[in-house]
Amino acid sequence: MAPTPTPTPTGAHQPAPGVPRRRVADTDLDVFPLALGTSMFGWALGAGASEDVLDRYRELGGNFIDTADSYAAGRSEHLIGLWMRRSGSRDATVISTKIGRNPDNQGLGTAGIIRAVEASLKRLQTDRIDLLTFHLDDRGVHLEESLSAVDSLIRAGKVRYLAASNFSAERLLEARVLAANGLPRFRVLQTHYNLLHRAEYETSLALLARAQGIAVMPYFALANGFLAGGYRSRAAIATTTRGLRVAAHLNRRGTRILSVMDRIAGDFDVQLATIALAWLQSKNSICAPIAGVSDPSQLDAVMAAATYRLSRADLIDLERASAGS
Protein backbone atom coordinates (compact mmCIF):
# COMPACT_ATOMS: atom_id res chain seq x y z
CA MET A 1 0.00 0.00 0.00
CA ALA A 2 1.36 3.42 -0.91
CA PRO A 3 2.14 5.76 2.00
CA THR A 4 -0.55 8.26 2.91
CA PRO A 5 0.52 11.64 1.54
CA THR A 6 1.18 14.39 4.03
CA PRO A 7 -1.64 16.94 3.86
CA THR A 8 -0.89 20.39 2.58
CA PRO A 9 -2.23 23.39 4.48
CA THR A 10 -5.25 24.80 2.68
CA GLY A 11 -6.72 27.29 5.11
CA ALA A 12 -10.37 26.61 5.98
CA HIS A 13 -10.44 23.34 4.03
CA GLN A 14 -13.98 24.01 2.83
CA PRO A 15 -15.18 21.08 0.68
CA ALA A 16 -16.59 21.84 -2.73
CA PRO A 17 -19.92 20.36 -3.84
CA GLY A 18 -17.89 18.04 -6.09
CA VAL A 19 -16.53 15.92 -3.21
CA PRO A 20 -16.70 12.26 -4.34
CA ARG A 21 -19.65 10.31 -2.97
CA ARG A 22 -19.32 6.91 -1.36
CA ARG A 23 -21.42 3.88 -2.26
CA VAL A 24 -23.23 2.49 0.78
CA ALA A 25 -22.25 -1.20 0.86
CA ASP A 26 -23.96 -3.11 -1.97
CA THR A 27 -26.82 -0.64 -2.47
CA ASP A 28 -27.36 2.03 -5.09
CA LEU A 29 -27.08 4.81 -2.50
CA ASP A 30 -24.23 7.25 -3.19
CA VAL A 31 -23.65 9.57 -0.24
CA PHE A 32 -21.48 12.39 0.94
CA PRO A 33 -18.97 10.81 3.37
CA LEU A 34 -20.37 12.74 6.34
CA ALA A 35 -23.97 12.24 7.46
CA LEU A 36 -25.73 15.19 9.06
CA GLY A 37 -27.03 14.25 12.50
CA THR A 38 -30.31 15.96 13.38
CA SER A 39 -30.98 14.93 16.97
CA MET A 40 -31.03 18.62 18.02
CA PHE A 41 -33.66 19.59 15.46
CA GLY A 42 -36.94 20.51 17.13
CA TRP A 43 -35.60 21.15 20.63
CA ALA A 44 -32.14 22.79 20.78
CA LEU A 45 -32.63 24.10 17.23
CA GLY A 46 -35.92 25.58 16.13
CA ALA A 47 -37.39 25.53 12.64
CA GLY A 48 -35.40 28.47 11.28
CA ALA A 49 -32.07 27.35 12.70
CA SER A 50 -32.63 23.78 11.50
CA GLU A 51 -33.33 24.98 7.97
CA ASP A 52 -30.19 27.12 8.04
CA VAL A 53 -28.11 24.04 8.97
CA LEU A 54 -29.76 21.95 6.25
CA ASP A 55 -29.23 24.68 3.65
CA ARG A 56 -25.54 25.00 4.54
CA TYR A 57 -25.03 21.24 4.55
CA ARG A 58 -26.54 21.02 1.05
CA GLU A 59 -24.51 24.04 -0.12
CA LEU A 60 -21.30 22.26 0.91
CA GLY A 61 -22.26 19.18 -1.09
CA GLY A 62 -24.01 17.11 1.58
CA ASN A 63 -26.85 14.74 0.69
CA PHE A 64 -27.05 12.25 3.59
CA ILE A 65 -29.37 13.12 6.49
CA ASP A 66 -29.72 10.98 9.61
CA THR A 67 -32.75 11.32 11.89
CA ALA A 68 -35.07 9.22 14.06
CA ASP A 69 -38.76 9.10 14.90
CA SER A 70 -37.81 9.64 18.55
CA TYR A 71 -35.80 12.84 18.02
CA ALA A 72 -37.89 15.58 19.63
CA ALA A 73 -40.85 13.16 19.48
CA GLY A 74 -40.81 13.25 15.67
CA ARG A 75 -40.24 16.98 15.32
CA SER A 76 -36.85 16.41 13.70
CA GLU A 77 -38.42 14.38 10.89
CA HIS A 78 -41.15 16.99 10.52
CA LEU A 79 -38.65 19.83 10.06
CA ILE A 80 -36.65 17.81 7.54
CA GLY A 81 -39.82 17.08 5.60
CA LEU A 82 -40.72 20.78 5.49
CA TRP A 83 -37.21 21.64 4.29
CA MET A 84 -37.21 19.01 1.54
CA ARG A 85 -40.56 20.28 0.27
CA ARG A 86 -39.42 23.91 0.37
CA SER A 87 -36.07 23.24 -1.29
CA GLY A 88 -37.31 20.59 -3.73
CA SER A 89 -34.42 18.40 -2.65
CA ARG A 90 -36.05 15.07 -1.86
CA ASP A 91 -34.72 13.21 -4.90
CA ALA A 92 -31.21 14.57 -4.27
CA THR A 93 -31.27 13.56 -0.58
CA VAL A 94 -30.61 10.19 1.04
CA ILE A 95 -32.80 9.89 4.14
CA SER A 96 -31.86 7.59 6.99
CA THR A 97 -34.32 7.38 9.88
CA LYS A 98 -34.45 5.17 12.96
CA ILE A 99 -37.47 3.52 14.56
CA GLY A 100 -38.12 1.60 17.76
CA ARG A 101 -37.73 4.23 20.48
CA ASN A 102 -40.69 6.51 19.89
CA PRO A 103 -43.17 5.93 22.77
CA ASP A 104 -46.07 5.92 20.28
CA ASN A 105 -44.54 3.03 18.31
CA GLN A 106 -42.08 1.41 20.66
CA GLY A 107 -40.17 -1.76 19.90
CA LEU A 108 -39.76 -3.83 16.77
CA GLY A 109 -42.92 -5.88 16.62
CA THR A 110 -44.71 -6.07 13.26
CA ALA A 111 -47.50 -3.62 14.09
CA GLY A 112 -45.10 -1.13 15.67
CA ILE A 113 -42.75 -1.18 12.69
CA ILE A 114 -45.57 -0.65 10.19
CA ARG A 115 -47.09 2.20 12.21
CA ALA A 116 -43.69 3.80 12.81
CA VAL A 117 -42.77 3.79 9.13
CA GLU A 118 -46.16 5.19 8.08
CA ALA A 119 -45.78 7.98 10.65
CA SER A 120 -42.22 8.76 9.53
CA LEU A 121 -43.27 8.90 5.89
CA LYS A 122 -46.00 11.39 6.77
CA ARG A 123 -43.68 13.62 8.81
CA LEU A 124 -40.95 13.48 6.17
CA GLN A 125 -43.50 14.18 3.41
CA THR A 126 -42.09 11.42 1.24
CA ASP A 127 -43.17 8.11 -0.22
CA ARG A 128 -40.06 6.13 0.73
CA ILE A 129 -37.30 5.87 3.33
CA ASP A 130 -33.91 5.22 1.78
CA LEU A 131 -32.36 3.63 4.84
CA LEU A 132 -34.58 2.39 7.66
CA THR A 133 -32.65 1.72 10.86
CA PHE A 134 -33.63 -0.35 13.87
CA HIS A 135 -32.74 2.08 16.66
CA LEU A 136 -32.25 -0.73 19.16
CA ASP A 137 -32.08 -4.49 19.39
CA ASP A 138 -35.53 -5.45 20.69
CA ARG A 139 -34.87 -8.76 22.45
CA GLY A 140 -38.58 -9.08 23.25
CA VAL A 141 -39.39 -9.75 19.58
CA HIS A 142 -38.01 -12.52 17.40
CA LEU A 143 -35.63 -10.98 14.88
CA GLU A 144 -37.32 -12.98 12.12
CA GLU A 145 -40.60 -11.15 12.85
CA SER A 146 -38.93 -7.74 12.65
CA LEU A 147 -37.15 -8.55 9.40
CA SER A 148 -40.35 -9.97 7.90
CA ALA A 149 -42.19 -6.72 8.67
CA VAL A 150 -39.50 -4.74 6.87
CA ASP A 151 -39.64 -7.18 3.98
CA SER A 152 -43.29 -6.27 3.42
CA LEU A 153 -42.39 -2.55 3.49
CA ILE A 154 -39.58 -3.05 0.97
CA ARG A 155 -41.95 -4.94 -1.33
CA ALA A 156 -44.42 -2.08 -1.02
CA GLY A 157 -41.72 0.43 -2.02
CA LYS A 158 -41.90 2.31 1.28
CA VAL A 159 -38.42 1.27 2.45
CA ARG A 160 -35.38 0.73 0.27
CA TYR A 161 -32.69 -0.68 2.56
CA LEU A 162 -32.29 -1.76 6.19
CA ALA A 163 -29.75 -0.82 8.86
CA ALA A 164 -29.10 -1.68 12.50
CA SER A 165 -28.08 0.50 15.42
CA ASN A 166 -26.75 -0.76 18.75
CA PHE A 167 -26.65 -4.40 17.63
CA SER A 168 -24.02 -6.83 18.90
CA ALA A 169 -21.85 -8.92 16.60
CA GLU A 170 -23.76 -12.01 17.75
CA ARG A 171 -27.10 -10.56 16.69
CA LEU A 172 -25.73 -9.36 13.38
CA LEU A 173 -24.58 -12.91 12.68
CA GLU A 174 -28.06 -14.17 13.51
CA ALA A 175 -29.56 -11.61 11.14
CA ARG A 176 -27.21 -12.71 8.37
CA VAL A 177 -28.42 -16.31 8.70
CA LEU A 178 -32.02 -15.13 8.39
CA ALA A 179 -31.09 -13.00 5.38
CA ALA A 180 -29.64 -16.10 3.71
CA ASN A 181 -33.17 -17.49 3.82
CA GLY A 182 -34.63 -14.54 1.94
CA LEU A 183 -35.25 -11.87 4.57
CA PRO A 184 -33.83 -8.32 4.29
CA ARG A 185 -30.16 -7.93 5.13
CA PHE A 186 -28.61 -5.23 7.26
CA ARG A 187 -26.55 -3.11 4.87
CA VAL A 188 -25.41 -0.56 7.46
CA LEU A 189 -24.45 -0.56 11.13
CA GLN A 190 -24.68 2.54 13.30
CA THR A 191 -22.44 2.21 16.33
CA HIS A 192 -20.71 4.31 19.00
CA TYR A 193 -17.16 4.89 17.77
CA ASN A 194 -14.66 7.71 18.05
CA LEU A 195 -11.11 8.41 19.26
CA LEU A 196 -12.27 8.15 22.87
CA HIS A 197 -14.54 5.11 22.47
CA ARG A 198 -12.74 2.45 20.48
CA ALA A 199 -12.72 -0.95 22.18
CA GLU A 200 -16.38 -1.91 21.69
CA TYR A 201 -16.24 -1.51 17.92
CA GLU A 202 -12.66 -2.59 17.29
CA THR A 203 -12.78 -5.85 19.28
CA SER A 204 -15.79 -7.45 17.59
CA LEU A 205 -17.87 -5.34 15.25
CA ALA A 206 -15.10 -4.13 12.93
CA LEU A 207 -14.11 -7.62 11.83
CA LEU A 208 -17.73 -8.65 11.31
CA ALA A 209 -18.56 -5.51 9.33
CA ARG A 210 -15.62 -6.09 7.03
CA ALA A 211 -16.41 -9.79 6.57
CA GLN A 212 -20.08 -9.17 5.80
CA GLY A 213 -19.59 -6.04 3.71
CA ILE A 214 -21.59 -3.90 6.12
CA ALA A 215 -21.07 -0.14 5.89
CA VAL A 216 -20.49 1.55 9.25
CA MET A 217 -21.85 4.92 10.38
CA PRO A 218 -20.24 5.91 13.70
CA TYR A 219 -22.38 8.06 15.98
CA PHE A 220 -21.05 10.30 18.77
CA ALA A 221 -18.28 10.85 16.23
CA LEU A 222 -17.19 14.02 18.04
CA ALA A 223 -17.89 12.67 21.57
CA ASN A 224 -20.62 15.25 22.25
CA GLY A 225 -18.32 18.03 21.09
CA PHE A 226 -15.30 17.14 23.23
CA LEU A 227 -13.25 16.17 20.17
CA ALA A 228 -14.08 19.50 18.57
CA GLY A 229 -11.95 21.06 21.31
CA GLY A 230 -14.63 23.23 22.85
CA TYR A 231 -14.38 21.79 26.37
CA ARG A 232 -11.09 22.13 28.22
CA SER A 233 -12.25 22.53 31.83
CA ARG A 234 -15.14 21.37 33.99
CA ALA A 235 -16.14 24.97 34.60
CA ALA A 236 -17.13 25.28 30.93
CA ILE A 237 -19.44 22.24 31.04
CA ALA A 238 -23.13 22.48 31.87
CA THR A 239 -24.63 20.05 34.39
CA THR A 240 -26.79 18.29 31.80
CA THR A 241 -26.79 14.72 30.52
CA ARG A 242 -24.62 15.81 27.62
CA GLY A 243 -22.40 17.79 29.98
CA LEU A 244 -21.83 14.76 32.18
CA ARG A 245 -20.80 12.73 29.14
CA VAL A 246 -18.31 15.41 28.14
CA ALA A 247 -16.95 15.76 31.67
CA ALA A 248 -16.11 12.05 31.71
CA HIS A 249 -13.49 12.71 29.01
CA LEU A 250 -11.63 15.36 31.03
CA ASN A 251 -8.96 12.99 32.22
CA ARG A 252 -5.35 12.16 31.36
CA ARG A 253 -6.28 10.20 28.23
CA GLY A 254 -8.65 12.86 26.94
CA THR A 255 -6.06 15.55 27.50
CA ARG A 256 -3.44 13.44 25.71
CA ILE A 257 -5.69 13.03 22.67
CA LEU A 258 -6.47 16.75 22.50
CA SER A 259 -2.78 17.55 22.76
CA VAL A 260 -1.99 15.48 19.64
CA MET A 261 -4.96 16.97 17.83
CA ASP A 262 -3.86 20.49 18.75
CA ARG A 263 -0.42 19.79 17.28
CA ILE A 264 -1.90 18.50 13.99
CA ALA A 265 -4.33 21.41 13.83
CA GLY A 266 -1.47 23.85 14.28
CA ASP A 267 0.68 22.17 11.65
CA PHE A 268 -1.97 22.09 8.94
CA ASP A 269 -4.40 24.90 9.80
CA VAL A 270 -7.42 22.67 10.35
CA GLN A 271 -10.02 22.42 13.09
CA LEU A 272 -10.07 19.62 15.65
CA ALA A 273 -13.45 18.40 14.39
CA THR A 274 -11.88 17.86 10.96
CA ILE A 275 -9.13 15.73 12.50
CA ALA A 276 -11.50 13.59 14.59
CA LEU A 277 -13.71 12.81 11.59
CA ALA A 278 -10.79 12.26 9.20
CA TRP A 279 -9.44 9.65 11.65
CA LEU A 280 -12.76 7.79 11.47
CA GLN A 281 -12.87 8.02 7.68
CA SER A 282 -9.42 6.44 7.47
CA LYS A 283 -10.82 3.19 8.90
CA ASN A 284 -11.99 0.19 6.90
CA SER A 285 -15.75 -0.16 6.43
CA ILE A 286 -16.50 3.39 7.64
CA CYS A 287 -18.94 4.90 5.18
CA ALA A 288 -20.07 8.14 6.77
CA PRO A 289 -19.63 9.28 10.38
CA ILE A 290 -22.67 11.05 11.81
CA ALA A 291 -22.11 14.54 13.17
CA GLY A 292 -24.56 17.21 14.22
CA VAL A 293 -23.97 20.92 14.70
CA SER A 294 -25.69 23.70 16.60
CA ASP A 295 -24.81 26.40 14.07
CA PRO A 296 -24.29 26.37 10.27
CA SER A 297 -20.81 27.87 10.68
CA GLN A 298 -19.66 24.67 12.41
CA LEU A 299 -20.32 22.63 9.27
CA ASP A 300 -17.24 23.93 7.45
CA ALA A 301 -14.88 22.14 9.84
CA VAL A 302 -17.08 19.05 10.02
CA MET A 303 -17.40 18.57 6.29
CA ALA A 304 -13.78 19.44 5.57
CA ALA A 305 -12.96 15.92 6.77
CA ALA A 306 -14.25 14.65 3.42
CA THR A 307 -11.24 16.16 1.66
CA TYR A 308 -8.64 16.08 4.42
CA ARG A 309 -6.24 13.14 4.74
CA LEU A 310 -4.16 12.54 7.83
CA SER A 311 -0.53 11.56 7.27
CA ARG A 312 0.60 8.12 8.34
CA ALA A 313 2.68 9.68 11.14
CA ASP A 314 -0.33 11.62 12.43
CA LEU A 315 -2.52 8.52 12.32
CA ILE A 316 0.08 6.63 14.38
CA ASP A 317 0.25 9.46 16.93
CA LEU A 318 -3.53 9.50 17.28
CA GLU A 319 -3.67 5.73 17.65
CA ARG A 320 -1.07 5.84 20.43
CA ALA A 321 -2.70 8.75 22.24
CA SER A 322 -6.13 7.13 22.19
CA ALA A 323 -5.04 3.59 23.04
CA GLY A 324 -6.29 2.07 26.29
CA SER A 325 -8.93 3.61 28.49
UniProtKB/TrEMBL annotation:
<dbReference type="Pfam" id="PF00248">
    <property type="entry name" value="Aldo_ket_red"/>
</dbReference>
<feature type="domain" description="NADP-dependent oxidoreductase">
    <location>
        <begin position="33"/>
        <end position="319"/>
    </location>
</feature>
<dbReference type="InterPro" id="IPR036812">
    <property type="entry name" value="NAD(P)_OxRdtase_dom_sf"/>
</dbReference>
<dbReference type="InterPro" id="IPR023210">
    <property type="entry name" value="NADP_OxRdtase_dom"/>
</dbReference>
<feature type="region of interest" description="Disordered">
    <location>
        <begin position="1"/>
        <end position="23"/>
    </location>
</feature>
<dbReference type="InterPro" id="IPR050523">
    <property type="entry name" value="AKR_Detox_Biosynth"/>
</dbReference>
<dbReference type="GO" id="GO:0005829">
    <property type="term" value="C:cytosol"/>
</dbReference>
<protein>
    <submittedName>
        <fullName>Alcohol dehydrogenase</fullName>
    </submittedName>
</protein>
